[in-house]
Structure formats: structure tokens, C-alpha cells
Amino acid sequence: MTTEDLEVDLADLAARLRDGEPDALAEAYDRWAPLVHTLALRSLGSHHDAEDVTQQVFVSAWRSRSTLRPDRGSVPGWLVGIARHRIADTWAQRARAARDAGALAAHAVVQDHPPPDERLAVRLLLADELERLGDPRATVIRMAFVDELTHEEIAARLGLPLGTVKSHVRRGLVQMRTRMEEVHGEPS
Q1: Are 165 and 136 contacting, i.e. CB atoms less than 8 angstroms apart?
Q2: In terms of residue numbers, what domain contains 52?
Q3: Which of 75, 101, 93 is nearest to 9 (CA)?
Q4: 6-23: b or e for each residue (b if 16 or more CB lie within 10 Å)?
Q5: Cα distance between residue 167 and residue 169, in whole Å
Q6: Whole-model pTM?
Q7: Could you report the per-residue pLDDT of 29-88, keeping only the tens digit for each?
Q8: Which distant-in-sequence residues (6+ apart) come within 8 Å of 27 by Cβ?
Q9: Long-range contacts of 37-46 (CB under 8 A, 24+ apart)
Q10: How high is the mean pLDDT of the chain?
Q11: What is the DSSP code (8-state) at residue 112?
């Protein structure tokens, strides 16, 4: 394929994507999902987070396809721009989760009437386990069980697909339960 053919191909893909053709999104995903995933993985260091970011990038691309301006840049450049924003969002979520876990642990220690030693130990262990989960899983667990939000409310607030939120809750609880069993030396 010549450079000219490639430019025509990219222009055609951009036009079809802007027009809302699902096949164009599938083609863009097939071509550039590995690029987006690699960028996210290198920045975030987590395969799971990189997969989530990749999914979010293409959902965002579809929803905001009207912002695609082929005269200002290429489709892959546009997708990389979206990926950078999603990666930055993930870093911000991680920072919030670390701050929240620290505040939760500090609150458990500094209360006027501290709980018995065993309850304090469990609270500290839970705060540590939430921190170990990483984001966005820890944020999702916190929103579900501390803020008592529904899965739908969490998905809307974090801009995540509902299935991803449910997976984070399920996997996070399983991971925390396994860790608690290891600490106590018996199944919970």
C-alpha cells in the first residue's frame, strides 16, 4: 500500500467513524487497540488497568466521534489523545484512593473512643487491603460499601461500564476475602 493509498484509507475510515458506522469503530479497534493498550500498560504498569483504559478509550471515541477532525490529525493520533486523558484519569483515581485509604486508617486510629484492639486491627487490615487492591477497584469497593452507592451509580460517577464495576466489586471482595483468610489462617 502506497502512502497515498494509506492516506485515502485513513480519511475514509475517519469519515465512516464520524458517520457512526459500527464497522469503522471495529476496524479502528483492530488497528489501534494494541497501541492504546501498550501506552496504558507502560504508564500504569497494570494489565488490568491497561485493559480498562483501552476499553474506555474506544467507548469514548465512539461517543465523541463528532469531535474527530481529520483535517487536524489522524485517527490514531486522536485515539492517543483520548488515551492520554484516560490514563491521567486513572492516575488521579489512584491518588484519590491512596488519600482516602490514609484518611480511613487515620480516622480509625484517632477516634475519641477507639474500638477494641481486635476491631482496630481489622480496620487497619481492611484499609491496607483496600490500598493493595489499587484503583479503580478500591474506589469501586469503597463507593459500594462505604458510600453505599448502587453499581449503576458507581458506573455513572466513574464513567465505567456497568459490567466493569460489577467485576471490580466481585474480584475485589474475593481478593480481600482470600487475604483475610491468609491472615486469620482459616476460611471466613
Answers
A1: no
A2: 3-90
A3: 75
A4: eeeeeeebbebbbeeeee
A5: 5
A6: 0.54
A7: 999 999 999 999 999 888 988 999 999 999 999 999 998 988 888 899 999 999 999 999
A8: 13
A9: 39/80, 39/83, 39/84, 39/87, 40/83, 40/86, 40/87, 40/90, 43/87, 43/91, 44/87, 44/90, 44/91, 46/134
A10: 81
A11: S
**Does 136 sit behind a cis peptide bond, omega within 30 degrees of 0 on the bond before it?**
yes
What is the domain-level CATH number for residue 99?
Answer: 1.10.10.10
Residue with cell 487492591: 133
pLDDT of 181 over the 80 cut = no
CB atoms within 10 A of CB 64: 11
Tell me the mean pLDDT in the region 133-141.
80
Question: By CB neighbour count within 10 A (0-12 exposed, 13-18 middle, 19+ buried), where does 160 fall?
Answer: buried
* Interatomic CA distance for residues 119 and 55, integer angstroms: 39
CB–CB of 97/139 below 8 Å?
A: yes
Dist CA 148 CA 177 (whole Å): 19
- Domain co-membership, 72 together with 15: yes
Q: What is the pLDDT of residues 107-117, one digit of tens each?
A: 555 555 555 56
Q: CATH code at 63? A: 1.10.1740.10
Name the H helices within 22-116: 22-44, 47-63, 75-110
Asked if residue 32 and residue 17 are part of one domain, the reply reads: yes
Residues written for the chain: 188
